[in-house]
Amino acid sequence: MKQFQYVRPATQQAVLTALVQPGTKIIAGGSNLVDLMKHRVMEPDKLVDINKLPLRAITPAKSGLHIGALALNSQVADNQQVITMFPLLSQALNAGASAQLRNMATVGGNMMQRTRCTYFYDVAMPCNKRNPGSGCGALAGFNRMHAIFGTSDKCIAVHPSDMAVALAALDATVIIAGRKGERRLPFTDFHRLPGNTPQFDNHLASGELITAVEIPNNNFAKHSYYLKVRDRASYAFALISAAVALDIDNGTIKGARLAMGGVAHKPWRLTAAEKALVGKPATLASFEQAAQVAMQDAKAYKHNAFKLKLAPATLIEALKHAAGIA
Amino acid sequence: MEDLHNGTWPDENDQPQDNPRRNFLKQSSLLTAVALTPAVAVKAAENHLDEKVAAVFEKLPVNVTVNGVKHNLSIEPRVTLLDMLREQLHLTGSKKGCDYGQCGACTVHVDGQRVNSCLTLGMMVDGKKVTTIEGLAKGDTLHPMQEAFIKHDGFQCGYCTPGQIMSAVACVREGHAGSEAEIREYMSGNICRCGAYPNIVNAIQEVKNGGQAV
């Protein structure tokens, strides 16, 4: 690992001041950043440890739940309010990483984790995300794990988070602090598509700090489900995952929230498929139709064509579980 | 918080030092360090980087309690908790398997929570309590999980075992050892190349069902 400076400021103001220096990165849990630094994929000159900031609490918000950016993944997954109000989030968190890593990883850090694309991780390979302009190794390379939605000819990597898929489905908001004050961003607008600038994973500006996410109250707790399909039973990244939440009244779907993981550069919200479900009976036929809508813009590469079948199948299976007809 | 510190603790200086291989490794690492340091410093000085030399070799203080013993250490920020335990405190029970958080051989408890010490910076345990596999037994009395691993043959080569046991203790304490399926899910961060999984699950179930304090 390259040498770096390390500071541990006690206040948010001091963190924001420390972030002004170029080459500075925030460290919270470190479970992805330290890994990337060991691989020399990221080589910050200075780390700002934010663990002294009081951003760990999970508290009721005006109409929902406020989750501090430093809340640990295990802490959120096991939180009784989260389990009661948003079981989808708890399920998604428990589907990610291992028990050890969930004790280290924070909510903010989970959002900021980088893709596990092998070409991004191997510094001997071309990668427009790691080294803009060097090309995309995955495009004509081994791309079994890669995206089927929203890709560009510069990058076909996927975002690796499970938590983020649930937060995208749950209409969460990201609260961001900067030197000029606080701003709020819909969770679905936080991560970016690769376009011509895959080096940017999200819209957090340099010098900014995620302080919390907020989830609004909803009627989905009774009928939600997170289904993750992977190469082994546990502790692996998603081939496909689906976060689904339904509001069912007397067998009719009044509202739906759907998102998929393992398919795009960001958690992939399926708004057209959601609309297709509203007013329909909560039956297999409705789910199959919605899955067809969901897949309309999908595009496969040499090794990931299986995702064109696995994605709708995963979505349908998750919907069946959520509706209680699995 | 863990309640592991009410027994008598071996001082770190009482660790057995008679392992020839370990001593050889320690001596050769030291020689390597002596051989390398001046060259790096000289090269940096030649490049008129005098100030940077000072910054590069800057060590920061870490005050940490490991297995009940307080230590005031001085480390480079890039030193991981695993390397700090193994190289500075000579607690070599925590193993360096993959060194990338994928195998779990380095699992230790920080303030009672199991973590991968290979992905934890030493600086980040400042002011905290760390328990390693060396801190589980009370004197000559093994921890119930250690006894159960022996009884159920929960290992073959043994390399992953310290991490498995630390993780297993946490798994029971967290309340995630309710069934075989739950144990397998919550132990998935510990890989065993020899495939001792069924015996590991049996060991954990025995400790859980035995109701002993872990």
Question: Main sheet of chain A?
Answer: 5 strands, antiparallel
How many β-strand runs of chain B?
5
Going by CATH, the architecture of the domain at 57-134 in chain B would be: Roll
Biggest interface, CB < 8 A: A-B, 29 and 35 residues
Structural class of chain B: alpha+beta
* Overall mean confidence score, pLDDT of chain A: 98
Can you tell me the residue ranges of chain B where pLDDT is under 50 for at least 5 consecutive residues?
1-18, 28-46
Spatial separation of the terminal alpha carbons of chain A? 48 Å
Low-confidence runs of chain A = none
CATH superfamily of the domain at 221-323 in chain A: CO dehydrogenase flavoprotein, C-terminal domain
How would you describe this structure to a colleague?
- The complex is a heterodimer of chains A (326) and B (214).
- Chain A is α+β, with helices and mostly antiparallel strands.
- Helix content of chain A is 27%, strand content 21%.
- Chain A is built from twelve helices and twelve strands.
- In chain A, the strands form three sheets. In chain A, strands 4-5-8-6-7 form a five-stranded antiparallel beta sheet, with no helix packed on it. In chain A, strands 9-10-11-12 form a four-stranded antiparallel beta sheet, sandwiched between helices. Chain A has a three-stranded parallel beta sheet with strand order 1-3-2, with no helix packed on it.
- In chain A, a hairpin with a 2-residue loop joins strand 6 (173-178) and strand 7.
- In chain A, 52% of the residues are buried.
- Among the domains of chain B are: 57-134, Beta-grasp domain (Ubiquitin-like (UB roll), Roll); 144-210, Orthogonal Bundle (DNA polymerase, domain 1).
- Chain B has helices spanning 20-46, 50-56, 81-88, 144-151, 161-174, 180-186, 197-210; strands at 60-66, 69-75, 107-110, 113-116, 129-131.
- Chain B has a five-stranded mixed beta sheet, with helices on both faces.
- In chain B, strand 3 (107-110) and strand 4 form a beta hairpin.
- Chain B starts with 19 loop residues before the first helix and ends with a helix.
- The chains are: A alpha+beta (326), B alpha+beta (214).
- Chain A binds chain B through residues 1-6, 8, 27, 30-31, 34-35, 37-39, 47, 49, 51, 74, 97-101, 103-104, 233-235, and chain B through 55-56, 58, 60, 76-78, 80, 99-101, 104, 107, 113-116, 119-121, 123-124, 126, 167, 170-171, 174, 176, 184-190.
